Amino acid sequence: MTAKGPVLTLFAARALLGVGPGVDERALRKAYREAAKRAHPDRPTGDAALFRDVQAAYRVLQDALARPTTFAPAVTASAVADRAFLDIDIATAVSGGSEELSIDGRRLRLKLPAGLRAGDKVRLLDVLFEVRHRPLDGVLVRGDDLWLTGKVAPRVLAEGGRVDADTPLGPRQAWISTKAADRGLVRLPGQGLPARANHRAGDLFLRLEASESEKDSLARSLLRRFAAAWAA
């Protein structure tokens, strides 16, 4: 394992700064300043690692705004046929499972181990598949880590406290300190993608938002996001 972390994708950069795909330069600068102010190490609630991530996210999105739109060259049908992809739910990536595939007219079931990362290879008969994660609204896989957005009572965001979180690995209790509540982010070590091969066990990062109702909970919010994946 090297000291260099995973590449920050556009999706991850937007999640860190809380902006959408259509953000313009002015809105991006405003979002960066707010995020950097919250995470600055000189503040009592600051976090040096998060501050570095915020700076990196800003650079990534600045580069994306400055870069002209380009189109990939045309790909022939034969070239596409040489590449086989296997799209799996994030819930399957976390806990393992199986996928039913059709090869040469035969319906076959492929058993999948827990902890599959995007880009991992799995084989069925003579076909080698490259794993891809199906997108899930509000959920981001960044390297070994999972990033989720959940709603908590405004009181918890103001004062901190304990909440019951329904994570991809099952129910977990999360203690939200006043520092974490202030920056709107809590980290659950080891609750991301499970360790596999040369990969460490990832962490689970919960991005916190205030719910409209005091009765709404982080558990219900996260459960709704994973219900479709688990039911598949």
UniProtKB/TrEMBL annotation:
Superkingdom, taxonomy of origin: Bacteria
SMART domains, per database record: DnaJ
Regions crossing the membrane: none
Domain J: from-to ranges: 12-66
InterPro entries named among the record's database cross-references: DnaJ_C, DnaJ_domain, J_dom_sf
Protein's UniProt name: Molecular chaperone DnaJ
Lineage summary: Bacteria, Pseudomonadati, Pseudomonadota, Alphaproteobacteria, Caulobacterales
